[in-house]
């Protein structure tokens, strides 16, 4: 039995079916895809409200894209990016930013992603936040502020004081370095999906035999012992020899377990809250920024939008600028009305790309924090001081209960690819346990 039909759950189900096991996938929402959600405006303009990119070293998700014959396209980059740092506008970050990022990369080399808690300085790094480590470096306040925003925000979707240095380094190590993580060309933001990223999950679901997937069935309780489990949903009960809980830890923690989970497992779930990014879209008749020689990509050490990108799909009726809000800015913005949020975001787009940005045809946002079955994005991370103690429990099975979700991945943690990997790993555990 698999709980959750995101990439982790669907990936697990594929593997189990291939091994000849019988599977049922129970999904809370009336749709598959979890943290992907592709929406079309009435004129056909496509928006990816959740995850959207895949990168060249994300082989598992790429395999699926190729398997289903899904077309992809490079992230549009017609012109120069804007780097707004220390009140200056540059076309690329200053040298000091690169050297601070290199230092982070070097530290990440000391991490084995399968066992970050074994790093020589793991305990000290776990007890230090990324913010406090940055503050102790010799870089200027401007460089530190910029790196804090693009790393903690752009990668972990939080504020730099919310993640430990160890968790930040683990995240970098799990992706193979800063460049694969942050880059467009050659990095995790290189490629987009024609038809939107949710279509990959929909293809995976379509391939499941009839009756395997049960939508709109939130699992509320898992009773388990060494022989099997009984799952209760809002409408049915099911029995299973093994269960893969393929939902973000913060939601796995809201399921009732009987007997209660062991302290370390429960503690790990409790200590892995979801990030708090906001992704916003402004839709224009045409990509006016390209006429000004701008790519639409920007990174800023100030203002509400840490990052923006030209999100216009090929042959789109209209152009799309997408912005990302992280950390304290995201918290503050959430306290405002939609009208105020729209004004604040558009004013910032206007500062970055000119007055035409002030009046889009449409302004669309989607708050994953307010989604009952997600509760935040991009993904969850162990809070400072908890990776060494609770990290191992995040994916250690409890009797017949196994754990998946991108948060449990050791490669591309936080990404589609990590989610698929986690589902496969959990399926492999089940296969081994059942002797298949
Ligand atoms: C705005 C945003 C931008 C992102 N950008 C990217 C990107 O560009 N590239 C990338 O690779 N990743 C990106 N990500 C992250 C990526 O979307 C996730 O890593 C990935 O989709 C997680 O898959 P998952 O299966 O682990 O979890 P989820 O997708 O969260 O799937 C879990 C599923 O479980 C269901 N569920 C929850 N609780 C229950 C329950 N009790 N019973 C039954 N079902 C339940 C949920 O409804 C959901 O369908 C982004 C995410 C967001 C939100």
Automatic annotation (TrEMBL):
Pfam family, one: Amino_oxidase
Keywords: Oxidoreductase
Cofactor(s) recorded in Swiss-Prot or TrEMBL: FAD
Keyword match Oxidoreductase: yes
Domain of life of the organism encoding this protein: Bacteria
Family: Belongs to the flavin monoamine oxidase family.
Name this polypeptide is given: FAD-dependent oxidoreductase
UniProt organism field: Nocardiopsis exhalans
